[in-house]
Write a structure and sequence with these properties.
A six-stranded mixed sheet has the order 2-1-6-5-4-3, with helices on both faces. Helix 5 runs antiparallel to helix 6 and helix 6 runs antiparallel to helix 7. The protein starts with a helix and ends in a 10-residue tail after the last helix. It is an alpha+beta fold.
C-alpha cells in the first residue's frame, strides 16, 4: 500500500497527500523499534524518539474556532515547528484509551482518547526504514476563542458547554471524520452540561440527540426530567414529551399510548403555546383512537384548525375525513 492509500483512512490526511506528496526522510542511524507496539510506547515516553520520528514533513489538523462554529484547518509543519511532547506517555500497565488501527504492515493510525471524546488526538504513522509520523489530528476546541455572549439561564461554563456541543454535533453530522461516533457522544455530554441549570433549549437538544440514535440514549428518568423542564416554554418540547408518554424511549413501539392522559395533556399544551404543527399529531391520535378512544369528529376539528393555522399537511387529512362522512361537531380541545 502506498502512503497515499494509507492516508485515506483519514479523510483529511487523504487531502493532504493529494496536495503535498510526502518526501522520503533519511533513515536515522538507529530505529527506536521495528515492532509498532514497542515503537509507540517509546514514542510516547521519549522526547528524542518523537523528535526523530517527526523530523520530516507532518500534516497537522486542528479545529479553527470562529465565533460559535469550528472547521478543521490543515497545516504542513516540519519537525522543528512541532511543540513537544506530541503525545503523553503510555504507561507500562496498558493501552487503555489508546486505539491502534493497523491498516497493513507499514501503516498505522492511533487514536488517543485518554483525555475524553472532546479532546481526541490522532497520529498517522508510516514505516519505511523506521516508523515515522506523517500526520496528526487534534480535535479539541480552544474555549478561549468561543464567542460567549451571556445566554439567559446559563452560567458562563454552561454556555461554553452549549457552544462546544454545537461544534461537535456539526462535526459528527457531516460523517467525514474517523471519530464521528465520539463527536456525537461529546455533543451529548456537553448538552447535558449546558442543561444543568435547566435551560430549556439545551434540555430539549440533549433528549433529541439521545432519541436520534446517533448518541447513547438517555435513561427514561433523565429524558422525562429534561423534557418536563423544556416543555414549560417550548411547544416542540411539550409535543416530544407527549411522544415520550406514549412510547417511552422506544420510538419503534407500536400500540396505544402507555400514558394517554398525560400524552393528551402535553399535546394540548403544545398547541396552546402556539405549536400549530402539533395539531395534526393530536388529530391523528383522535383518529386512531390511541388516547381516550376514537373520535373522528374531534379529529376533523383539529385538522381543520391546523388548516386555518397554515399547516399544509392538514389539507389532505381534512379531505379524507370529510369523504368518510366525519362531521366536526366537537371542538379540537
Amino acid at each position: 500500500m502506498t502512503s497515499a492509500n494509507f492516508i485515506t483512512a483519514s479523510f483529511l490526511a487523504m487531502l493532504w497527500l493529494c496536495a503535498f506528496p510526502i518526501t522520503a526522510v533519511a533513515a536515522p542511524a538507529v530505529c527506536a523499534a521495528t515492532d509498532f507496539t514497542a515503537f509507540l510506547r517509546a514514542f510516547s515516553q521519549t522526547i528524542d524518539v518523537q523528535r526523530q520520528a517527526s523530523a520530516g514533513r507532518v500534516f497537522s489538523t486542528t479545529l479553527e474556532v470562529v465565533g460559535d462554529s469550528a472547521q478543521p484547518s490543515v497545516r504542513v509543519l516540519h519537525g522543528d515547528q512541532l511543540a513537544l511532547p506530541l503525545m503523553s506517555a503510555i504507561t507500562d500497565t496498558g493501552m487503555a484509551g489508546v486505539e491502534v488501527q493497523r491498516i497493513d504492515a507499514r501503516h498505522v493510525r492511533v487514536d488517543d482518547k485518554r483525555a475524553g471524546n472532546e479532546a481526541i488526538k490522532a497520529y498517522l504513522f508510516e514505516y519505511a526504514a523506521c516508523w515515522t509520523l506523517v500526520a496528526m489530528e487534534d480535535w479539541s476546541v480552544d474555549e478561549s476563542r468561543l464567542a460567549v455572549s451571556g445566554m439567559p439561564n446559563m452560567s458562563r461554563a454552561e454556555e461554553i458547554c452549549y457552544l462546544k456541543s454545537g461544534i461537535f454535533q456539526g462535526l459528527g453530522g457531516v460523517e467525514r471524520y474517523p471519530p464521528t461516533t465520539e463527536f456525537f457522544e461529546a455533543a451529548l455530554q456537553n448538552k447535558l452540561c449546558a442543561a444543568a441549570s435547566g435551560n430549556p433549549q439545551a434540555s430539549l437538544e440533549a433528549v433529541s440527540l439521545g432519541f436520534s440514535g446517533m448518541a447513547p440514549a438517555l435513561s427514561a428518568e433523565v429524558s422525562e426530567k429534561l423534557l418536563s423542564r423544556a416543555a414549560e416554554t417550548l411547544p416542540v418540547a411539550a409535543a416530544l414529551l407527549a411522544q415520550f408518554y406514549c412510547n417511552g424511549t422506544d420510538d419503534t413501539r407500536d400500540g396505544p399510548c402507555l400514558d394517554p392522559a398525560r400524552a393528551e395533556a402535553m399535546l394540548i399544551k403544545s398547541v396552546k403555546m402556539g405549536g400549530w404543527e402539533t395539531l395534526p399529531i393530536l388529530a391523528n391520535h383522535y383518529e386512531q383512537g390511541d388516547l381516550q378512544g376514537r373520535d373522528l369528529s374531534r379529529a376533523l376539528a383539529c385538522y381543520r384548525l391546523a388548516q386555518e393555522k397554515g399547516v399544509e399537511s392538514a389539507d389532505a387529512s381534512v379531505q379524507r375525513l370529510t369523504d368518510q362522512g366525519a362531521v366536526a361537531g366537537a371542538a379540537c380541545y
